[in-house]
Amino acid sequence: MKKLLFLALAALPIAAVSGPQDEYWSSLQNLCGKAFEGELIEEPEGEDGFSGQRLVMHVRACSDEVIRIPFMVGEDRSRTWVLTRRDGRIELKHDHRHEDGSHDEVTMYGGTATNTGTAQAQYFPADQETRELIEPAFSNVWTMRVSPGETFTYGLWRLGTPRVFRIDFDLSEAIEPPPAPWGWED
Asked: What was the pLDDT predicted at 185?
């Protein structure tokens, strides 16, 4: 009887084990199509391009491999965060466009998570491409944290400097999605 039970259990499909990255990815996918308003929590001293502006993130396009999140600052629709699953890690790139849709001179900078992170947070240290594009950003570390139903936090720390930037988005209340970011077509 024990042998039959063992054989029956061995024949059952094994459920895929979900790791922290999968849980994180799923939390973002659950936001797909929705937009949320943010609040500036910290901005580097001497920079005020975000102060007093309406800050909106829109989880606009989601697949199993890529999630695109346009980030609007007032009427400026030039920014999109592009998250891509690569080689068991998540990569963050910042896609910057001009109003005519052409690429900005400084675009596609970011980095790849060095480990699986947690179900709530991923950290992205600057990659070599970023260092070549923006020399002072070689020590940047971006973070994206998601607390489902509560907040999404986008943050930037430039290690060894006082440069810190953070925005918290309220996930408890979706807002009307904004127009397409520059360079996108509906």
From this structure: 74
Give the pLDDT confidence score for residue 47 in this predicted structure.
75
The CB density around residue 168, as the number of other CB atoms within 10 Å, is 20
Whether the Cβ atoms of residue 55 and residue 152 lie closer than 8 Å to each other? no
- The DSSP code for 178 is P
Give me the residues paired with residue 63 across strands.
none
Nearest to 151 by CA among 139, 130, 167, 138: 167
Query: How many residues does the structure list for the chain?
Result: 186
CA distance between the termini of the chain: 61
| 30-48 burial code (b ≥16 CB/10 A, e <16) | ebeeebbebebeebeeeee
Residue of higher predicted confidence among 100 and 14: 100
56, 134, 162 from 45: Cα distances, Å: 22, 19, 8
- Determine if residue 87 is left, alpha or beta; phi over 0 gives left, psi from -120 to 50 gives alpha, anything else beta: left
What does the angle CA 181 – CA 167 – CA 70 come to, to the nearest 5 degrees?
Answer: 15
CA distance 180 to 72: 10
CA quadruple 60, 134, 84, 100: dihedral sign: positive
